[in-house]
Predict the structure.
Amino acid sequence: MNVVLFGATGMVGQSVLRECLLDPDVQMVLSVGRSATGQRHPKLRELVLPDLFNLAPIESELSGFEACFFCLGVTSVGMNEESYRRITHELTLSVAQTLVRLNPAMTFVFISGAGADSTERSRTMWARVKGAAENAVLGLPFQAAYVIRPAVILPRHGIRSRTKLYQFFLTMFRPFYPIVKALLPRYVTTTEDLGRAMLRIAKHGAPKPVIESWDLGGGL
């Protein structure tokens, strides 16, 4: 299986990249992003593109993929709705529309977040924008498309969050990880388990298009 990964430098992107590189069923991973991962691996190829809204310069490189993991995202803290929607909804849809045109038999896996509102009527800005992005992805004619809504993600294997505030709390509460996971098993996953679940979904599908946090440990 050949996969394309958007957002490989983020915490979720790092997670699925690690699992893809370890999996013998994955022949090649194409990472597309604004910055390089800094990793070297025989299966990894990277394309750095400053403007991801314009994939024309690399479009010839985007065919022949069975799966896409779309892990790009930003925190909504300090952003107005227009700016957040441009990255979360408009960029996602722009990339997905190009990929479905080039790879109609592709499985598209979109990372959303716990609490996203698919009715798009939430009073919480990020929740309705995420919900709109989910609906847009699920409405495209991919062979299959899935939305994953993780809640708390505990990092493993040296993976770090690029969001400084989130990484600060992760570092501060590292000694309490086992307790948090034991007390809130439905809402806590690890980067390793999340990456493996994403890869399983790309390979084998899932029983429903929207995967909640508590579904991730259910053998998907």
